[in-house]
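User: Predict the structure for this protein chain, please.
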Amino acid sequence: MLMLLITHQHTRRINKVGDSTESELIIATPTLSAWQLCYYMHMEKILTEDNIDKIAKEIIDNVRKIDKKEATILAFSGDLGAGKTTLTKEISRQLGIKERVISPTFVIMKIYKTKDLKFKNLIHIDAYRLDSSKELLHLGWEEVIKNKENLIIVEWPERVPECLNKEVIFVSILHKDDTTRTIKVCYN
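Assistant: Here is the predicted structure, written as structure tokens:
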């Protein structure tokens, strides 16, 4: 199997043969791609106000099936106004959170208790104002990712690439028109 690994520092060509992996540096790239290490794209759909509840449910149902020893991380990429926080609000509603969920732009991280059986906490992070991954580490990132009962949503993951491992679930939300978005989800 041949795939490309695109990170904030470089692009590598990965060749997997059986249990062995060969890797070759191709080019330097300055930014993190939302498809950092996408083994397969599980979902690509049109997102509207009418179906956001179904898409949020599908994402939650799929991440519940993933057995992890640490937190589950969803990395939401998209332009301003694409719908990252709107999708987070719908996910939080489906996890039983009654609190008003808003973008934590100024506080950076907000923790909500859920009613979910698998994910006891939803941790919503808006990395837009962060200048580096070090700033997220200072907010206790290493501690929150250790707890497998945490579902973490990171908006603007491009700002904190060193904090994201290969098991991150990348969600890209792209403007199609004023009321419609294209959503792509990559489960690694």
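Strands lie at 2-6, 10-17, 20-28, 41-47, 72-77, 109-113, 121-126, 150-155, 169-175, 181-186.
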